[in-house]
Amino acid sequence: MQFDPQHLAALSAILSRGSFEVAAADLSVTPSAISQRIKALEDRLGTSLINRGTPCTGTPAGIRLAKHAEDVGILEAQVSRELSLDAAPGPARLRIAVNADSLATWFVNAMAAVPDVLFDLVIDDQDHSADWLKRGEVSAAITASTKPVTGCDMHPIGALRYIATASPSFLDQWFAEGVTAKALAVAPCLTFNAKDGLQRAWLQENFDTRISPPTHFLPSTQAFVDAARHGMGWGMNPVQLVRGPIRNGRLAPLIPKTPLDVPLAWQVSRIMAPALEPATKAVKQAATKGLIPD
What we know:
Belongs to the LysR transcriptional regulatory family. The protein has about 290 residues and is of the alpha/beta class. Helices cover about 45% and strands about 20% of the residues.
């Protein structure tokens, strides 16, 4: 089945902007024209593509079709580059799954090195970002998995180093007699969300017994550091974000010289790999500066 490019453009714009009206403005058409295009596409496919609301979201079929539209845009941009043709009207859109800590420490440098692309980032834990590739909802992902997703090329790019840190006052309050399994079982820790296994991984690596401390849930990389600085709990923070606070005495490692290194990989859909070569090159270059060799 062939799709009308205008219909695909309308669907992609609505799902990326969350509104028929804003999508119409982006495409320089009326909201009525946008609605007619979506109705024609849904009638042709015999299924709903958009959950109408504030914001508008895609049904599973709509998300998959919008991803197809974005892939077509990237492939057309590649052909234009290779044949020195006039660029398409407007940059291509690239959807990537990335973990919050990579985004906060090094991944923006990679994005900035890729011209003529609008990024649409999905934030998920590095242990789960590969699921977005498996579902076909993104073209590439930063993952912690060393096993390639079926149909994808995998590029190991290094490891993100974490340090278990807390404020000196927190250490004095909860670990006056040392960082022991008994003390860790009652001292509050920080957890990004239910998918975050970094604190458990560090505990398992450094203590034989199973420990399940009380925890705050803070789904923000910067808030994680701030909460540790304010003595709310201990947590695993990227070394790039805590070098300064450790140097000025606002934070301290729970146990010196016990980093947790999380290997990361850049996985990209094999079909899209040639068109995404500029992005792959930028990710590798940024990773050499932002990550440690695995």
